[in-house]
Amino acid sequence: MDLLFLAVFALYAVATVASLVCFYTLNKRLRTMVRVLLPVAAALHAVYLLTRFVISGHTPVASSHEAVSFFAWSLTMAYLLFRWRYRVKNFAAFVTPLIMLLMIVALASPSHVVELPPAMRSWWLPAHGMIALMANAFLALAFCGGVMYLLHEREIKRKRMGFFSERLPSLEALDNLNQHCLAIGFPLLTLGIISGSVWARQAWGAFWQWDPKETWSLVTWLIYASMMHQRFTLGWRRRRVAIMAILGFCAVLFTLWGVNLFLGGAHSYAR
């Protein structure tokens, strides 16, 4: 099983290097290579996750290794689904490094199969865990789009058109990208919090206990809810949304890792 994960890791690494070199050189062969490698890596990654499910008997989102690995796979699938529907020039050059970062964290985390605590032995584990991580994947795509937007806008404002303007989509296209990603990610985030609350009621007798992870999940949701409200009622677009998408994803990462590392709480078993 470890060898299978290393094979997946290697495929993502090659795809990441190829996408970055392609971004710099605009080599069409490398672009084609990335388009082939990522679906292959995602398929092999799915086999790895299925193998862990068969061995452990539970959905592979319980430990830190499993959760981050599933996050990386979800991000890859979200990117592939998005690319199937839309064409965003050189999007892979910003998504694949993030996938690779997640894979490095997963590789560094203990990969042994753990026995679930009683509170996690529930069918709510796949419902809540998978929905929440899939939401994070689409919010990660919005984060990448926000970074691309700010890089492109900065070059335009400096009136030094060249490197990024040649390699990135228009600002309008990037703003639309953020809108589509958030339109999927935010409802999934909402559903993830609701399913987590129902699970908490079943496991601990209360829908909400102000556990640190619950609190930061709410903070993250409020950031995105505010952004969606401002966008659709006050017409927020472009730079403001790009910055909020970046800040929101920082809150996502803190909820995923920072709470476990610094605050603990009832969710500390996910370390």
Describe this protein's structure.
Helix 2 crosses helix 3 (about 65-85) and helix 8 runs antiparallel to helix 9 (about 240-265). The chain is about 80% helix and about 0% strand. With about 270 residues, it is mostly helical. The chain has two domains: about 1-115; about 135-270, no CATH class. The radius of gyration is 19 Å and the shape is globular. It is built from nine helices and no strands. Keywords: Cytochrome c-type biogenesis, Membrane, Transmembrane, Transmembrane helix. One of its GO terms (molecular function) is heme binding. It is a multi-pass membrane protein.
SSE inventory with pairings:
Elements: H1 2-25, H2 28-56, H3 64-85, H4 92-108, H5 124-157, H6 163-167, H7 171-204, H8 212-233, H9 239-263
DSSP strand tally: 0
By DSSP (H or I, 4+ residues per run), the number of helices equals: 9
Instruction: Give helix % range.
Output: over 70%
Backbone structural class: mainly alpha
- The backbone outline, from C-alpha atoms, is globular
Mean pLDDT: 84
Based on the model shown, name its key terms.
single chain; 271 residues; globular; transmembrane; cytochrome c-type biogenesis; Cyt_c_biogenesis_CcsA
